[in-house]
Model the fold of this input.
Amino acid sequence: MSGISVPEIAERQADSSILDVSVVIPCLNEAESIEACVKAARGALDQGGYVGEVLVVDNGSTDGSGGLAAGAGARVVHEPRRGYGNAYLAGLAAAQGRYIVMLDADMTYDAGELPRFVAALEEGGDMVLGDRMKSIQPGAMPWLHRHVGNPMLTGLLNTLFGTEVNDAHCGMRAVRREVLPKLDLRTTGMELASEMVIRAAKAGLDIRQFPIEYHPRQGESKLSTWSDGWRHLRFLLIHSPKHLFLIPGAVLVALGSLIMAVVLTHLSLLGRDWGIHAEIAGSLLVVLGVQVIALGLCARAYGVYFMGEQDDWFGRMRQRWRLEHGLMIGGGIALAGLISGGVLLGMWIDNGFGSLAEGQLAVLSATLVTVGAVVFFTSFLLSILGLRRPE
Done:
């Protein structure tokens, strides 16, 4: 039971405008199971003593699922734009309960667990996830999903965003309706499951979890192993500019700088001397690394300014560094390159415009000018992003 007293239940039932719980169920051609799912959800609401609703989002079904759901007692919302995320975005927007429980229509989850989810929210949780991984019934989940896909994606999510969830893609979960504006959900496909966890973590919400059972589905699965897996992976990387851009960029810059330093100082390494070809390779790594870092900073700025994300490091850097700082650093680096290029030009003139054997200095000059230009113009772009869009 959820801890609601009998007088509270009676009071809420007397006032039908107050809804405790909305059970939101996305539905695409689930005629085999949708009636049983709706009835199970209604039974769970009654069992918990909640004043609630079962809301089915018909995502363009062609088998009469929407009508079957309505006949079983659900409120049906129609969302013609296909996609798991689209269905949930419509359902979450239409839900009227203080607490929202998300449930698949294929009977893979036990709706009787609903009171446990609501109780966790009432105890202070903002989002509650089911954890299927230790209670998967035979035939309920393909081996590749169970032992490779889900553990890998969940582990990567935990690593990138500092969460400690066991099953980031469980389809039965619950959330307080009041925190939905903080989540600001946007994705239209299966990656909505990851987005919810990521945005909850970034917003500092209280995420809780407990084990639940996962049963074989009724009807045909809509999940595409490779395309949906890639969408999840892509989403995780896009929302972590630090790991997608900044760290790889810094590694490239460090490696390229080391190679160039070895060449320019004529240091013998690995039993041989390294010449201009190695320096060119190092230069390419440095330039590429700086450009990747610049992209990462712009991506981070976009996330903070336009997507409402919180980033303490970026906030501190923004307070300490202004446009003028970037312009001075970029201009200084480019100026150093131009000066060394000027020296090279003078040497060429002195040589009567003949052959010039100062290729190493030429590569260094070109590298400095390019890096300086990237820093200079990236500073302007970051400043433009900082203007923000109108509220």
